[in-house]
Amino acid sequence: MHCDLLKGKVALVTGGSKGIGKGMAQSLGRFGCNTVIVSRNLDEVQQVADEIKGFGVTSLACAADVTKKSQVQNVVDQVLNKFGRVDILVSNAGMNVRKPLLDLEENEWDKVINTNLKGVFLVGQAVGAVMVKQKSGKIINIASVAGIKGRPSLGAYCSSKGAVIQLTKVMALEWVDANVQVNAIAPSYIETPMTKDFISKKRDVILNRVPMRRLGTERDIDGALLLLSSHYSDFMTGQTIFVDGGSTAS
Q1: Cβ-defined contacts of 68-76 (< 8 Å, 24+)
Q2: What does the domain layout of the chain look like in residue ranges?
Q3: Which residues belong to the active site?
Q4: Contact predicate 162/147, CB 8 Å
Q5: Which of 46, 137, 167, 243 stands 20 to 30 A from 174 (CA)?
Q6: What is the pLDDT of residue 197?
Q7: Is the pLDDT of residue 72 over 80?
Q8: Which residues does residue 39 pair with via DSSP β-bridges, in sequence order?
Q9: How far apart are the C-alpha atoms of 199 and 205, rounded to whole Å?
Q10: Could you say which DSSP state residue 116 is in?
């Protein structure tokens, strides 16, 4: 998909070195955005940034741990120094530990909650401050169908993604007067290089949960991404769009 709807905008994507984060960063580049990609591994995000430059836009790679406030602020400062503004934030950095609750270690719980929830808070807080000041902005938090549907061995993940949906609503209400729209995208299973091995082991079980009887692809996220990044969502805030093949409809 190629589109100039977002031409000249500045987008920041966390967790953009692989998986759906990388896919969304690439799509924003194709949509005409100057794109900043953030991950803990600078070499990986630099590779993505170089690919995005091929779309004729500017791309900046930044290394940061989204659970560390000082590192998050450093990224925002770099973006402001280079571009002077942030128009779109895609808060995607996340992780998972698959274990029954009785076997889940405290440090494993903390790691998932800190990355998936605290990270969304810290990045949203830092970028939100910029957007409130500039009186415009689009924030897209990446949630999950697991945010509203329980799954065995996903206690920490389900808890974190459910909290992201609620945090999205609060951000939306607090920043509504500053013309900042905050929404979320909640995918179900998306087939990426990261998920390929897990999905291959349980493909039939997973497909039975999806009425469309197929898995999602990175490109299936593009419609919601383009909507929530553009002026077409100017009257939408605090909402979660489920991109799930109908799995939450039943």
Answers
A1: 68/122, 69/122, 69/126, 72/122, 72/123, 72/126, 73/126, 75/12, 75/36, 75/38, 75/126, 76/12, 76/126, 76/127, 76/130
A2: 10-243
A3: 157
A4: yes
A5: 243
A6: 74
A7: yes
A8: 63
A9: 9
A10: I
Cα distances from 137 to residues 53, 62, 105, in angstroms, run: 23, 21, 38
Separation between Cα atoms, residue 74 and residue 97, nearest integer Å:
28
Is residue 58 within 8 A of residue 12, CB to CB? The reply is no
Structure-block tokens of residue 246 = 């109908």
Taking alpha carbons only, the member of 216, 230, 211 closest to residue 186 is 216
With a cut of 60, say whether residue 7 has pLDDT above it: yes
Mean pLDDT of the chain: 95
State the Cα–Cα distance between residues 15 and 62, nearest whole angstrom: 11
Give per-residue pLDDT as tens, 165-189: 999 999 999 999 999 999 999 999 8
* Residue 191 CA: distances (Å) to CA of 11, 32, 147, 219, 239: 24, 25, 19, 10, 24
pLDDT-derived band at 78, boundaries 50, 70, 90? very high
* Residue 52: predicted pLDDT: 97
DSSP assignment of 56-84: TS-EEEEE--TT-HHHHHHHHHHHHHHHS
30: Cα within 13 Å, side-chain hemisphere: 13
Q: Which residue has the higher pLDDT, 103 or 3?
A: 103
| Helix or strand (DSSP H, E) at 10 | strand 10-14
**In this structure, what token pair is assigned to residue 11?**
């987008």
CB neighbour list of residue 158: distance below 8 Å, 6 or more residues apart: 146, 147, 149, 150, 151
CA distance 205 to 202: 5
| Eight-class DSSP state of 211 | T
**Domain 10-243 is of which CATH architecture?**
3-Layer(aba) Sandwich (3.40)
For the chain, the 3-state helix, strand and coil shares in percent, each to the nearest 5, are 50, 15, 35
